[in-house]
Design goal:
With 111 residues, this protein is of the alpha+beta class. 45% of the residues lie in helices and 15% in strands. Strands 1-2-3 form a three-stranded antiparallel β-sheet. The longest helix is centred in the middle third of the chain and has 16 residues.
Length: 111
């Protein structure tokens, strides 16, 4: 593959990028994810984990089980019928623009 890198020039305070697997987008809209990330950043919690948790809560609700039951389920066929994998990376673009040669700040969560 051909890869091109370009510097981030015009990022504002609070700009971020959400990369997520399709298992997240099966349950959340773009705006839901943005709202969850903003709320988590204000609370000082991991924004990627907030998106994964919200995805799992919605999946559990849709299938009529409790969130705790879903997360207690072992990975496998039974759980796969309820939700696809939910992997999220949130990249803080403001930190990425400020850092000249280092990697941007990111948080990850996966289930």
């Amino acid at each position: 593959p051909q890869i091109t890198a370009r510097p981030l020039a015009a990022c504002s305070e609070g700009d971020f990028l959400v990369l997520a697997s399709d298992g997240v987008w099966d349950y959340l809209s773009d705006q839901n994810a943005v709202d969850l990330v903003c709320r988590a950043q204000r609370a000082g919690t991991n924004p990627a984990e907030a998106v994964v948790d919200a995805t799992l809560k919605l999946a559990a609700s849709r299938f009529g089980i409790k969130y705790e039951e879903l997360v207690a389920m072992p990975c496998g066929r039974q759980r796969r019928r309820i939700h696809d994998d939910a992997t999220v990376v949130v990249v803080d673009l403001n930190s990425a623009a400020a850092a000249s040669a280092s990697a941007p700040t990111s948080t990850r969560a996966r289930l």
